[in-house]
Amino acid sequence: MKNLFKTARNSIGRWNKTDKNDKISSEKTSHKKKAFTLIEILIVVAVIGILFITLVPRIDFAGDKARETGVKTDFRAFSLAAEQLLRENAGLAKHDTLAKACAENAGLNLYLDPALQFSTTGTSNGLDPWNQNYTVQVMKPSSGNVNNGGIIFVSNGKDSSLTTDADNYTIATVFIDGKIETQTSGFSSNIEADSIDTIEASSTGATMTVSSGVASIRYKN
Questions:
Q1: Residue-averaged pLDDT of the chain
Q2: 171 by DSSP, 3-state: which?
Q3: What is the distance between the terminal CA atoms of the chain, rounded to a whole angstrom?
Q4: Do residues 120 and 170 share a domain?
Q5: pLDDT per residue over 143-182, tens digit each?
Q6: CA dihedral sign, ordered 52, 55, 57, 60
Q7: CB 78 within 8 A of CB 138
Q8: What tens digit of pLDDT does each residue of 12-48 get?
Q9: Do 109 and 17 belong together in one domain?
C-alpha cells in the first residue's frame, strides 16, 4: 500500500511539472513578435512617398490661396483710404506727390490703421503675407484735368520682385473727372472698373494716361 501511494504521488508530480512546462512554452510562443519583412517595409515607404508627392502641391496651393486672401484684406483697407482721400479732396490736386500723399497724420495715413500706414518713401509699416513691405505710388496724367490721378498699391508676391511677368498683386484707385473707381490685377478673381483699361508693371517708370475717360496705368517696378 505504501508503495502504491508513492507511485501515485510521483505520477501527479510529473503531471504538474509537465503542465507547468507546457504553460511556459505557450507563453513564450504567444509573446514572440513577428518582424516586418523587407518587402513590407518597402511597400510602406512607397505609399508614404506617393502620399507626399500627391499632397505637398495641394498644401502649397492652399497656402498661396490663404496669402492671396490676406493681400485682399489689406488692399481693401488701402483702397478705402484712397477713395476717402480722393473724395474729400476732389482728386489729387493737394496730394499729387508721394510725400504729400503719405505725410504723417495726413493724406492716406489719416484713414489707415497705424500698422498699415506708409512712409513718405511709399513703404508700408505692415508686411504682406510673404513678409515684405507693401508699396504705394501716386500718378497723375501727363495732361488734362489737374485733379485727375491714381493711387496704386503693390504686393511683390512670393517671387519678391516686380517685373512685367511677375507674380505680384496690385490695386489701383483712380479719380477721373469726378468719378472714383478701383481695379485689381494679379488675383485669381479681380475687381474690374470701367474707367481703368490696363494695369501693368514697367521698368521705365510709372505713367498714367487718360483717353475718353479711361485710364491706362503703368507702375514702376
A1: 82
A2: strand
A3: 116
A4: yes
A5: 888 899 999 999 988 765 555 445 789 999 999 999 999 9
A6: negative
A7: no
A8: 455 455 555 555 555 555 555 567 788 888 888 888 8
A9: no
Identify the DSSP state of 179: E
Structure pTM? 0.71
Residues 6+ apart with CB under 8 A from 53: none
Confirm if 176 and 215 have CB atoms less than 8 A apart. yes
Q: Kindly state the cell numbers that stand for 174.
A: 483712380
- Domain membership flag for residue 49: no
**What phi and psi values does residue 141 have, to the nearest 5 degrees?**
-60, 150
* Coil vs helix vs strand at 183: strand
C-alpha cell at 20: 507547468
- For 150, the grid coordinates are 491714381
What letter represents residue 96's amino acid?
Answer: D
**What domain count does the chain have?**
2
d(CA 28, CA 132): 64
Please determine, for residue 8, whether its predicted confidence score (pLDDT) is greater than 60. Answer: no
